[in-house]
C-alpha cells in the first residue's frame, strides 16, 4: 500500500515507521522543517526507545521517506493518515481541531484517484463528518472515503504497542474503505490483533471513552491512597487485592502524583465538553478532572509537610520530570505543577531527568539542571522521585545520603521499600503507605 502520514510527531512518526516496517511504502510529512531535516539526517526529533534503528532500516530499504511538501506527498496514494496535534483549545477546553481541518483542506486540494483519508488524531465525535464536508467543499471531485482510526499506543512503549495492539478500531461510513484498511493492518491481523469495524462516530467516541476510563481508574486509586494514609493501610496491597479480581484488572492501579501527559488531561476535558454540549454530562469524568488537578499541587504540599512545613531557601532535588519514563514528553507533566508549588513556597529546585531536560528548559523557569541524580542531590534538603525511570530504581542510597544536607526522601511512585531507605538513615515518605 502507498501510505502518507501527515504529522511526524509521537504518533505519526511511530505509526508511519511501523507501517513501513510491515512492508508498506510510506511518506511522513511534517510542516516543521527542522523535524524533517533531522529525520533525513538520521536524527530522531523525539525520544522513543527503538525508533532510531527501525527508521534507519526502513529508509535504507527504500520504504520510508520524509517530506515537508504535503501537496506532492498526497498524490496517487492509497491511504492518507492525519496524525497532527489536537491540543486543548485555549479558553474552553474543547479539542482544537484547526490542525486537523487545515490538513484535510490541503489534502483535498491535491489528492488524486480513490483515496482513503484516515483520522488518526484523537478527535471529538462528529469530526469525521466535518473533515468529509470540508474536503468535499475544497474539492468536489475528490474521490475519497473518510475513516476514523484512533491510536492507542503509549509513549515509551510506542513501537511495541503499535505492532502488538490489543485491538485496532476502524470507524467508517463508506464500505469501499473496508478492504483498504484491512490490507493496511493485515500484518497485525495475522498476529491475532482484532480489527473492530464500527460506525465512524462510534470509533471516535471509543478513543475518548477509553482514555477517560483509564484516567478515572488512576484517580480512583490515588484517592484510595489518600485514605490509606489516614487509616493506616497500604495502597499497594489494596491495589493488588482488588486488581486480582478479573473484573477490575491490575493495570492503572499505581498510586502517584496524578496523571499528566499529552493525552489524558486534554482528552478528559474534551470528552466532558462534548458531553455537556449534547446535554449528557459525564459527572464521573468532571470529578476525575477536578480531583486530579488539585492533586498535583497537593503533592507539592506533601513535600513541604515532609520537610517540616517550611522549604523557604531550602534546596529540593527532583528526580524525573517527564510525565512517565522512557519519553522526553513534558506536556502537562505533574512535575511542572509540583515544582511550581515548591517554588511558590520559596524552595530552590535542582532537577535531573534522563531524557526530558531539553523540553523541561522550555517550560520551567529558575530550575538548576543536574547531569546525574547524585549531582542533583548535592546539599539538598529533600529528594523527590516524581517519575519512575529505571535508573532511579537502584540508586546508591549511601551516596545520596552522603551528598544531601538533610536526608529526606519523598517517593511519589512508591519505587522503594520503606525499610530499605530508612536503613540508610533517611526519613521516607511514599504515597498511600502508612508509615511511609
Ligand atoms: P505531536 O505534536 O507530537 O505531532 C503533531 C505533528 O503534526 C507536529 O510535528 C506538527 O508539526 C505536525 N503538523 C501539524 N499540522 C500539520 C500539517 N498541516 N502538515 C504537516 N504536519 C503538520 O502530537 P502527537 O503526540 O503525535 O499527537 C497527535 C495526535 O495523536 C493527537 O490527536 C493526540 O491526541 C493523538 N494521540 C497521541 C498519543 C501520544 O501518546 N502522544 C497517543 C494516542 C493518540
From TrEMBL:
It comes from the Bacteria. Keywords: NAD, Oxidoreductase. Residues 317-418 form the UDP-glucose/GDP-mannose dehydrogenase C-terminal domain. One of its GO terms (biological process) is polysaccharide biosynthetic process. Its EC number is 1.1.1.22. The keyword Cytoplasm does not apply. InterPro entries: 6-PGluconate_DH-like_C_sf, NAD(P)-bd_dom_sf, UDP-Glc/GDP-Man, UDP-Glc/GDP-Man_DH_C, UDP-Glc/GDP-Man_DH_C_sf, UDP-Glc/GDP-Man_DH_dimer, UDP-Glc/GDP-Man_DH_N, UDPglc_DH_bac. It holds the Pfam family UDPG_MGDP_dh_N. It catalyses: UDP-alpha-D-glucose + 2 NAD(+) + H2O = UDP-alpha-D-glucuronate + 2 NADH + 3 H(+). SUPFAM superfamilies: 6-phosphogluconate dehydrogenase C-terminal domain-like, NAD(P)-binding Rossmann-fold domains, UDP-glucose/GDP-mannose dehydrogenase C-terminal domain. It is an enzyme of class 1 (oxidoreductase). The keyword NAD applies. Pathway: Nucleotide-sugar biosynthesis; UDP-alpha-D-glucuronate biosynthesis; UDP-alpha-D-glucuronate from UDP-alpha-D-glucose: step 1/1. The active site is at 263 (nucleophile). NAD(+) binds at residues 30, 35, 86, 122, 155, 266, 331. Coiled coil: none annotated. GO terms for molecular function: NAD binding; UDP-glucose 6-dehydrogenase activity. Substrate binds at residues 152-155, 207, 252-256, 260, 324. Belongs to the UDP-glucose/GDP-mannose dehydrogenase family. PANTHER family: UDP-GLUCOSE 6-DEHYDROGENASE TUAD (PTHR43750). This is UDP-glucose 6-dehydrogenase. The lineage of its organism: Bacteria, Pseudomonadati, Pseudomonadota, Alphaproteobacteria, Hyphomicrobiales.
